[in-house]
Amino acid sequence: MRYIISLLTILFLSSLANAAYVFNSRGWVEYKKEGTSQWKRISSRSRLIIKEGDQLRTKRASTVQIYMDDGSKIQLAPRSSFKLRAENKKETSLGLFFGRIRSWVKKRAKKFEVRTPSAVCAVRGTDFSVAADASGNTRVEVYGGSVMTGDASGKSVLVKPGEVVSVNAKGLGKVKKNPAGPASMESAIGEAKLLAKKELYNEISKESVLKAAQAEMQSAEYKARKVAIDAYGYRVRMEEYVIRPQTDQFKYVVLNSRDDRFDFGKMIFTFNKDLPKDLSLATENMISSTADAAPEWYLTDMNSIMSNTQDKVTENATGGAMVESSDQWSLVFNEYSFYAAGPDEADLNGGMGKWIWTKNNYNIATGAIASASYLGSSGLITTTSGDIFHNTQKNQFADVDSTWIQAEDFLLFDDGRIASANDFSFGLGETMDTVTDELNFERVYTSSLFGGRKIDMVYSAKFLKSVGLLRF
Known about the structure:
Layout: H1 4-9, E1 20-26, E2 29-32, E3 40-41, E4 49-50, E5 55-58, E6 63-68, E7 73-76, E8 81-87, E9 91-98, E10 101-104, E11 111-115, E12 120-123, E13 127-132, E14 138-144, E15 147-150, E16 156-159, E17 163-168, E18 171-172, E19 176-177, H2 191-202, H3 206-216, E20 222-229, E21 235-243, E22 249-258, E23 261-271, H4 280-283, E24 288-289, E25 299-307, E26 312-318, E27 321-325, E28 328-341, E29 354-363, E30 371-374, E31 380-386, E32 390-397, E33 404-413, H5 432-436, E34 439-447, E35 454-460, H6 461-466
């Protein structure tokens, strides 16, 4: 299943079909539209849509990231020149005139190729990471596809999925199997953190949730109320707020009230150090950064729950750290686990529910993992449908109960209308900022564990933006 943190950081950023979207730039980056001869500089906070035939180029100490409509991502290195040759339902074709490009290509994606003046590179599902330290030691890990790795003497080796190789001043090391991460790296967290997790996962009745919210909202740092129409035509009242349970934590809560139901979501983010007064300084780069140095604040743990007061889905991420790879710092959790429960499974695993899957060394920004384990041991069957404005993904597991879980996502306006690409062709007086303020995310979970019920959560894009959890 896709999970909440991806929903908050990636879903909106890749929400323009059959186009590419400039997400992050640093330094001096320029673009030229197809059919024109004028180059224009991109602001570091600009979120530019580029289409077939458009070109980008970077100067010294400058980089830019671009998301494709299928969820793939590329990064252009300094002193590089690039053209989007094609971007449609069948293929993505990139033209690299000179410089260097890094690609994170989604598995089972459409045809993806990079063309240079002398070569064509076609890939499907290639993911790898490179880490280097100040002493000149390099580590290359491959998660999908293969990577040819060489040293200063000209020697090279093909590194395949599940393998790792190190390179230092003496040359290439031996290719080895990449061991799975430790079973659990959840360090000794204080009693206050244990109590916070207990409350998060175990107190899910409407009465307990509202009682806690009534007390917490008195000291909330951010709070908002909003009424909108959900994807099924029902009025939903959203109450959202952020508090700081501890000096190194913040907690995001959203309450959804409809005439006949109550749903809620809670997330606790724990950082490596005490948070600043301006929370956005910590959230700005908590997933990824292209700065020369690692972000000052990064996530070490993340705990979340979504519930209808009977059923729940929970997430538990530990061992977070910033890892450098190809001019980008990315948040990597040592262990990221997903659980689900109906009333019969509610008390399992410390209140988190029935274990569904665990991903080790999970890179939140790129989606790369070192290893994964699933309920039923023999993997899962995944089916998807729809587009980035309304899509469904169902996972069927091979356990004795044939457990399945489905997530349905919507990007919609306050009036319940599902967004489309045309909504981002801005008219007079419209900007990405003004359109975002009218948008909401809706996620609906159904499962064989829920007895025919569903968990139906709506989040306000405007509020998520105000606290730094959504950027564009």
